[in-house]
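User: what does the whole thing look like in 3D?
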Amino acid sequence: MSVYKREMIQSHNLVDTRNKTLEREINLAKNIQTALLNGEKPTLENDEVSGISIPARLIGGDYFDFYPLPNGKLRIVIGDVMGKGIPAAMLMILTRGAFRTAAESTKGPGETLTAMNNALYADLRKLNSFVTVFCADWDPILGTLSYSSAGHSLPEIIRGVKQKVEIPPVKGIMLGGLPNQTYKEEKATLVEGDLVFIYTDGIIEAVNTDGEMYKVNRLENLLKSLVTKNVQEIEQSVIEDINHFTEGLPQKDDITMVLLKIGKESTDISSYNCPLV
Amino acid sequence: MLLKVNSFVDGTKQVFKLNGILDYSTVDTFDFFNKTKEFATELEVDFSELDFIDSTGIGAILSILHSASSLNAKVSFVGMSEDTKNLFETIGVFEIKKSLLGEG
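Assistant: Here's the predicted 3D structure for the full assembly of 381 residues, as structure tokens:
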């Protein structure tokens, strides 16, 4: 074998080893992110809660989390980091840390967002990035959802009688946009059978083969038709409907949703898959 | 679909005319921050032929705002669709523009 050929083989082997190492590390990163994102969901006495995140690539920049508070409330957060892939995933982990720290020491969702922006602003600005976040506290005793937004869209809330609930709007600048921000809070009263659907834009911006977007109206109509189901069934049906709509086109953006269903009694009996005897 | 940016100077005004999609896949087509002329006193971003913008695209628009802030230049957005306006409103781009450029 000539020296040239031997060097070519050695060089090829080196590239192959590096590629395999990189692939292994990306898969490890994916496992870490999946474990952190899809950890144990809180169990509520009278309500149902669920969440799922499906990255467009191996790893993504969307984030959701639940933080049970000592006063019996449940703090819920969903976030969308600018960009995609590994860079967004790194900032997603940073966002998770900021939320976990802030959730522990702040009274409400507005204060949580303020603390998160204070913690993240300098880093995000340096990296020319930002994160949109929606944060809410569910109080199962009073039946109220207090919420605040840092550049994120409001959730869809559907009443058990298949009607959209209009909630007071609230606006705030995305995390990393400006320093020293105060985030206002609003409050909505929820009743048995209500579905709160919090999501990232990967859902409504999913594109089909005609170049059309999924859009919020389609989501709203779908949720109205599903509102009597349990949260797992609703979650699964939304994913199936997006897949049906996009007709197998590659997913362009991360897709994340968090569902809160008020009351367990209101769930349609057929959704329990009981045999009809 | 790709992104085309027609950048031209009109006196001391620099115009960025966006055409196509400004998203993760196209944003590196144009370096908005470094392509800003130092003598510009006004930057105009024309969205009238923009079909879609995502969060990465908004990041590029923010870099224009920061660039304008460092040059003490004004920025105007023209030809925005209702969808783009709503998105900028939700994310807080208009508030950042006001704050960075000292707009009343």
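In plain terms: The longest strand of chain A covers residues 131-139. The interface with chain B takes residues 80, 82-84, 128-130, 132, 149-153, 171-174, 177-178, 201, 205, 253 of chain A (CB under 8 Å).
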